[in-house]
Batch of 2 targets.
Target 1
Amino acid sequence: MPNIKLTIEYDGTDFAGWQRQKNGRSVQEEIERALAQITQKSVTLVGAGRTDAGVHARGQTANFKTDSQLSPLDYFRALNGLLPDDIAVTEAVEVGDDFSARYSAVSRAYKYTILRRPSALMRRYSWQLSYDFNINLMREAASVIRSTSDFQAFCKVEAEVDHYRCRIDEAEWHEEEDGTLILSIRANRFLHGMVRALVGTMVDVGRGYTTIGDFCWIIESKDRRHAGQAAPPQGLCLISVHY
Amino acid sequence: MPNIKLTIEYDGTDFAGWQRQKNGRSVQEEIERALAQITQKSVTLVGAGRTDAGVHARGQTANFKTDSQLSPLDYFRALNGLLPDDIAVTEAVEVGDDFSARYSAVSRAYKYTILRRPSALMRRYSWQLSYDFNINLMREAASVIRSTSDFQAFCKVEAEVDHYRCRIDEAEWHEEEDGTLILSIRANRFLHGMVRALVGTMVDVGRGYTTIGDFCWIIESKDRRHAGQAAPPQGLCLISVHY
């Protein structure tokens, strides 16, 4: 049975998240509905990462198995014709039978964008903060994250997981010419709410509300209540998934 | 009486254009209403360029005179606090009494973005075209534009103007890594609908529907009916106004 891998871009603004759910519009459901229309059969889509409500994706990946004999290019064209315009399929390829977008993934990369000036064009895709930061302190916090392995302090409490260990491959703040700050973070896995909790806490460090010592203590406490407020979803984007 | 110059960014998606009008929401009206609230007086805003419905701006400029004694920083803060989030004031400065955002402007710069892949995140800010172009032909058309001075063939017929002469300072297509095409065009003035008519006609050249010879003939005909269809507004952005 052919196994098709999709790369998907979406504007998370009007979605309740990636995952199918009882109340609210989800990306998974929209694509599954379009696939059912194309194949005339019920299709289950396995996504690499469950992005939250309001979070965007430039390179989400997902796969589905089907006995329909359409080519990847057929799926690419038919999906882009049928999907609402806040979802786009940027690639469709056939993959091996044992490929799973979720379990075969080696790492996921996210970006978080903080804008430091008023903007009408970036408001849907950034967190706009006008106060001053010490970017060097935020970079120090990022270097602490790079040598951290247990992220329980940055995980939503209701999350059902076996353990809280993540291998961080990249965690770096870049500052653009106009002062925009972008966190690039890549890891083998991310816990629920982890990037937004990390960004909120690093912003507290940049503002001087939390010292680097406190930041290390928060990590060691393994208690979500000690970390900062979650940064808002619209600044977050799933950039790519690596296999 | 202090004369205040504003630099303004807006997302044109939900506007009927810059200019105040009877039916439809305009950027000018929203800002004038906010200024009236701040100064408790009626304020008239003079804009540098009248962008059409759906066209965006990163650096529109406008000025107003007022006997209110607020500082430019006060206006900056109060406007960004009061304005809807699809308008942002990015700068407010006091200028000389004879400054007019419209009549003092030396040139205006626009960008037009053509995306050649499906995208959910750029759909509000680009024209998405999946067919093939010859970018070299489009560059040739741009070089013809650089040595053209009469643009009547690219002007909406109802426009009330004395003459159709424009001095083109820049007209250049850039191709980005992912195939995105961006026209950067700067001129002392633009006629109504001019950039979108030029882009539509240059796309016809890139697709091979219109030869460079035909393109020159269209210009010489001075007849809007000979030029191509107007490119859609969402790909167009007023980048800056120079004084």
Target 2
Amino acid sequence: MKKIGFIGVGIMGGPMVCNLLKAGFDVHIYARHKEKQQVQDAVAQGAVFHEEKKDVIHGMDAVLTMVGYPSDVREIYFGGDGILETADPGTYVIDMTTSSPDLAVEIYEEAKKRGLHALDASVTGGDAGAKAGTLSILAGGEQGDFESCLPLFQAMGKTIVHEGPAGMGQHTKMANQIMIAGTLSGVCEAVAYAKAKGLDCEKLLESVLGGAAASRQLELLGPKILAGDYEPGFFIKHFIKDMKLALEGANKEGLQLDVLQEVLNHYLLLSAQGYGEEGTQALIRYYMEQDS
Amino acid sequence: MKKIGFIGVGIMGGPMVCNLLKAGFDVHIYARHKEKQQVQDAVAQGAVFHEEKKDVIHGMDAVLTMVGYPSDVREIYFGGDGILETADPGTYVIDMTTSSPDLAVEIYEEAKKRGLHALDASVTGGDAGAKAGTLSILAGGEQGDFESCLPLFQAMGKTIVHEGPAGMGQHTKMANQIMIAGTLSGVCEAVAYAKAKGLDCEKLLESVLGGAAASRQLELLGPKILAGDYEPGFFIKHFIKDMKLALEGANKEGLQLDVLQEVLNHYLLLSAQGYGEEGTQALIRYYMEQDS
């Protein structure tokens, strides 16, 4: 495992490529926008940029994808010059995008027919985790394939778990996002209540961070919410995609996730108001702007 | 500050009394059920039991209350032989029950007329925090009164914050409970999703506990949820009381907390099904029993 193709060199993919380079892999990248900062950084650190997608697929030991939406994943795998068509038999093809679990299974099955080893391996930890190489990597696929790819995963992540067969990595990521939706909405509703009652919100955070209400969302986003800082760590538009996938998946099992649905509705409203490019903490707007 | 009256020697009050005794206070207790284990434990450690409520109010430097519902608080303060009628002028009267912020203000104002120093000082940290003396104490009232009572609070808690004037301790507790409602519902919806999809839930917890979905609720209650252990650390019936108070408070400010309302609805359904005496983690029943 030496030559790695990487498609999708953005906020997450960029630092992941750099960590693969640091670990000694020979990384070939393809991105639609060569001028992007992350692409420039990756090239400066030794990544080889290719103008043609097929050149980071053909001749590689593994091809990693980290793109935006399931439609992008589908295009890259099933489209013209796509991974399934272009990868050499025996190649490991790993989608790290947060994407549809069903699509992951579809890719796995099609890949198997073609002698490719497919894994779905979505991540958590955000751009900070991507930079630090401390991502959690949630992998689905065959045990043997997972083990073969461990050196790759270890270059990018800290907590690396084989969750089960194809699709299970994505399902785990869905569960993760469902938790975040509940937690962050609780934080925002609490802050909205506190502001309405005239509480000192700095004291509120100090008071509750050590207790049963503590959460990583509160820690990371609480101070941003109080400061009115809605810069994206994680885009609302991407969170909406994830929540929709999770709800679709739940509905298929006859499971109604009312809180997730409620949180999604709030975000859809914010998105319709033009806030889709803000960070998820901008959920507080839904509550603070109820009367405006 | 030496002689302390304590009313409400239950799961929380019992260990709080014991910590006051350890710190050298002379604690006089009143409880409706003398035979209760917590009362027996407190007496064994040196608390003086009184048959009459007024005997733990009159002649005390401070009177602490830790009871169940706002109606209990009202009765103990405003009822016959109550605190407002019976306490000596100059006494510190501190309600530590999670109760109505408006009632806390009402008590404060009436107490002031009678020369009493009232504080609302609800706590977080559960029975474990009460035993360990590591509660967070969220206090509302006058700054000077708060400072005078610090030795008491330090005997029972670790994080001790003066949140603002009367009622602000209770408001902080409400904000805390709002956060917990969102967080715990996120955890339960995620586990329900994971089970529906056949995920290995132990691996799920391992995968997400270090990341952005991490929370104290997940840490404390996740394993209980997986084990089907619904023993109460915190009763559903008490959480329902808290959520109702928080929603009433929000509505008064024209603030709609949709997620909290949704979570309350789920708990009300569980309560109607006879689960009010279970722990809050039994919220998972709402999702697991949707089809049954």
